[in-house]
Amino acid sequence: KNEVEQSPQNLTAQEGEFITINCSYSVGISALHWLQQHPGGGIVSLFMLSSGKKKHGRLIATINIQEKHSSLHITASHPRDSAVYICAVRSERTSGSRLTFGEGTQLTVNP
Amino acid sequence: GAVVSQHPSWVICKSGTSVKIECRSLDFQATTMFWYRQFPKQSLMLMATSNEGSKATYEQGVEKDKFLINHASLTLSTLTVTSAHPEDSSFYICSASKTQETQYFGPGTRLLVL
Question: What digits encode the pLDDT tens for the residues A16-42?
Fold first, then answer.
C-alpha cells in the first residue's frame, strides 16, 4: 500500500462543474502539498497545508490531520484546469523537505 | 516568487553518450536540490537529494556512477547521465528548496536516447 493514495485516478468533467480530488496518507506528516502538472510536464505548487483550509482563486484545499485526509476542490471548472493534480506529503520522520508523492489524478475538463 | 529553471528543456542523444542537465534557482539560494525522473503516466520518482558543497544522497536502486550529481553552488545543480541508453529516456525534473518548507520545481527536461 502506498503511503499516499489519491482518488480518483482519472476524472472527466464538464466546464463549470465543481470538482473534488481526494488524498489519503498513512504516515504522520508535517505538511501536505498539492501540485499541478500540465501536459508539457512543468509542475506548479498550488498549496502547502499543515492544517485547516486554504483558498486561492477557484481552488480550495482542506486537510484533516486526525483522519489523514486532504481534498482539493475546483469551483467553476474550466478546460484550462485540465492537468494532473498530485498530492505530496512531507513525513514527520524525514528530515529536510523531502516529499512522498501520490500517483496523481488526471483531470480533463471539457468545454 | 521562487523560480527554478532547467536546461536543456529537451535533448536527443545517441546511445553511449553523456548528457548534462542543469538546474538553477534564479532568484533564491537553494540549500537543497532534488532530482526526480518521471515515466509516462507515473508519478515522480526521487533519484537523489543534493546539498550544496556535499555529496548527493542517492535513493535505493539509483546508480550514482551513472547519474552524476554536482551541486557546486547555492544556485546550480547538474545531473549528468553517463553512457546513456534507451532505457534512460525519461522526463527529468529538479526542484530546489531554500527552507524545510517548500520545494520549487523546474520545468523538466525530456531526454530521448536513440
Answer: 999 999 999 998 898 999 999 988 888
Q: Confidence class of residue A1 from pLDDT cuts 50, 70 and 90?
A: low
A-B contacts at Cβ under 8 angstroms: 52
Nearest to B44 among A42, A97, A101 (CB): A101
Three-state secondary structure string covering chain A: CCCEEEECCEEEEECCCCEEEEEEECCCEEEEEEEEECCCCCEEEEEEECCEEEEECCEEEEEECCCCEEEEEECCCCHHHCEEEEEEEEECCCCCCCCEECCCEEEEEEC
Contact A109, A103 (CB under 8 A): no
Closest residue on chain B to A9 (Cα):
B41
pLDDT in tens, B46-100: 999 998 888 899 999 999 999 999 988 889 999 999 999 999 999 999 999 887 6
Q: Which chain A positions have a beta carbon within 8 Å of B97's beta carbon?
A: 96-97
Mutate to test the interface with B, among A36, A89, A98, A100 (most CBs of B within 10 A): A98
Write the residue in A41, A86, A97 that is nearest to B43 by C-beta: A86
- Which residue would you say has higher pLDDT here, B27 or A60? A60
